[in-house]
Sequence to fold (391 residues):
Amino acid sequence: MQFYSEAKSLIKVNIREYGMYIALFIIMLTFSIMTDGLFMSSRNISNLIDATGYIAVLAVGMTLVIVIRHIDLSVGFAAGFLGAIAAVLLSQAGVPFYITIPIILVLGIIVGLFNGLLVAQFGIPSFVASLAGMLIFRGALLRVTEKTGTIIVKDENFNAIGNGFIPAITKIAGLNLLSLILGAVMIILYIYSEFSKRNNKLKYNFEVVSANIFTVKVIFVSAIIAYITWILAGYNGFSWTVIVVMIVVAVYHFLTTSTVLGRHIYAVGSNPEAANLSGISVKKITYIVFGSMGMLSALSGILFTARLQSATTTAGTLFELDAIAAAYVGGVSAAGGVGKVTGSIIGAIVMASLSSGMNLMGIGISYQYMIRGAVLAIAVIFDVVTRKKRA
Fold:
């Protein structure tokens, strides 16, 4: 009874964080039943995760932008334009992929810093500044691709980022061994991280959940990682896209939860005036967050171009809206100061799962847009209601 009471209280207090995980579980279970297990097949889950990669990367950056109470509408066509520049460098200039990728990432940082300059230095509302950027990059993308319409990328190493899989080494019962090893490593690192955080809290006499709740949580999350690893290992294993997204999430999760910079970002989002009075440079944080967003836009463009093995005139269309939706569904607050990068990834997977499941069921694209819009509206309503209750 005590275990049940504590679990109920924990979910109620952290409903924003746990709600999206519950929603994802319900969505996957529902589509799995309605498609006779096809939704949870190794091939579909692998394709779903790979197709989510470029949006997930954008969602991570967008999370931080929204946390500091701004928005960036330019990221979609910035990704499309930078992806096209990568295609030009690879196909027309003959630049090797290992030089092309750093160049594009640096260009992305410059693009982001320009947006940050307009917002932080000139005081232009981020909506207007990024809207101008969106139009500029839309035109730039059309300019780059106007001669051929499509720029084909033939560099196999570059294309492997969007379509390739890590080597298997060997297979055991049809399962990719290296993927199984990586899955096991992730579980070990997760368990170590959870125990480390718990011990640190106990060391300073902070409140922690009971040992029973903690054990259930660790076992449950470890089981999910193991199950997803098993599914992917049964197909082609982890893709390079998944590896890239995992690295991005790990770096940004550490940055936002375990560094002074991360604390400053959330302080600015919670109350910019108070943060400024406490000695935090709001302008500096704005530059860093928008520069980071630009770099992740470039990475998204690389992933998308590599996946299509080409750059097209429509690349980047609606990417920004998908990223914003993923961030809000993942628990970011419209009021700023609240949101986790891990949540934005779950939000991206939720939106991708909806699209994948509805496609498998043969639901028309018109209904798909309406359903996804309704899910986004519900997520924002949920955010507003929970904030009012806390107030």
Q: What stands out?
A: Residues 50 and 234 are 15 Å apart (CA to CA). The radius of gyration is 21 Å. The beta strands are 150-152, 171-172, 175-176, 310-312.
